[in-house]
Amino acid sequence: MTLSRSIVAYFSMEIGLDSDMATYSGGLGVLAGDTVRAAADVGLNMVAVTLLTREGYFRQVLDTAGKQCEYPASWIPEEKLVEMPERVEVVIENRAVQLRAWRYEVMGVDGHRVPVYFLDSDVDGNEDGDRRLTHQLYGGDERYRLCQEVILGIGGRRMLRALGYSDILRYHMNEGHAALLSLELLAEQTGGTGVTEEHLKQVRRRCVFTTHTPVQAGHDRFSLELVRSVLGSDSVLWETEAQMCCGGALDLTMLALHNSNYINGVAKRHGEVSRAMYGQYTIDSITNGVHASSWVSPPHGRPLRSLHTGLAQGQRQPAYRHWHSAVRDSRVPLHQ
Fold first, then answer.
1. Could you report the per-residue pLDDT of 203-259, keeping only the tens digit for each?
2. pLDDT tens track for 283-313
3. Is 284 left (phi over 0), alpha (psi -120 to 50) or beta?
4. Is 4 within 8 Å of 145 (Cβ atoms)?
């Protein structure tokens, strides 16, 4: 079944949507969640893809001696998400790994919904180690991380295709974790006929990349030996190895930069730092924002939503009067 046209497919390793769903570790996931909420508010026809991390990142507590301890942030997907019947397959270390997706809908202020699909490798028939690949966000070693990024980028694109999303105009890679998506798009373009510059141009036209990390140490970089072991020798990557790999390693940030038409940092200063780090690319900057009505207390959140609706309808003053009334009646001190 072909679904209604989606302008943007948003790929992010983590998306924070609900405090009871441990699918985020910090700022990257929180910002991604706010991006999805904002898209729903403005009625953008978008679909988002991320990982289902059943054990979350981790929870931190202090024991009686003041020592930091870490525990899994486990939650039950069936209580929050709807399992989809579609299954897709990715090849990891020459093994076929089955994936399923769970759907969550983010509803905007005017009722527009943005679906978010959580990819899950904990599927009957997969080997035990493969079933755990989506259990813990950023868990394990470099191999575990690269396998997760295969699931997100390659598996995510295949899942959208299986779900009927056939008319996506732009793919937004939120950080380098999603960069293997561009290889899957390239493989689709070539159809096994060999990579040409025109194929690469077609992929770039469809991809947007947001970089968040201003230091080299924060970017995923894997040895080509590990990459070949995980992706296999048939990957389209090896046809473009000279362009996309350097120093005996695959840098996923560089892969995303190379295969994107538009690139942005997340603040004016960050844009400047990123341009200094990657001078051969044109890097814009869009300053991070927050989805305000999700983060303020209810007495203040209601007038924010009313303000959005009032402005959309050209009723500026009534919305502001609602705001001032709510502030006046609130028991929360404004200048504490």
1. 999 999 999 887 776 788 999 999 999 999 999 999 988 888 888 999 999 999 999
2. 999 988 888 888 887 776 666 666 665 555 5
3. beta
4. no
DSSP calls for 69-130: EEE-----GGGT-EE-S--EEEEETTEEEEEEEEEEEEE-TTS-EEEEEEEE---TTS-HHH
The domain segmentation of the chain, as residue ranges, is 8-291, 296-329
Phi, psi of 232 (to 5 degrees): 90, 170
The dihedral through the CA atoms of 49, 156, 146, 212 has a sign that is negative
Q: Residue 304 CB: number of other CB atoms within 10 A?
A: 20
Model pTM? 0.87
> Are residues 29 and 15 in contact, defined by beta-carbon separation less than 8 angstroms?
yes
Residue tagged 């997760």 (tokens): 148
Contact 179, 173 (CB under 8 A): yes
Q: Which residue has the tokens 């992706």?
A: 231
Q: How many residues does the chain have?
A: 336
Distance CA 102, CA 117 (A): 5
Burial 246-273 (b: 16+ CB within 10 A, else e): eeeebbbbbbbbbbbeebbbbbeebbeb
DSSP 217: G
Contact 295, 311 (CB under 8 A): no
* CATH 3.40.50.2000 for the 8-291 domain, yes or no: yes
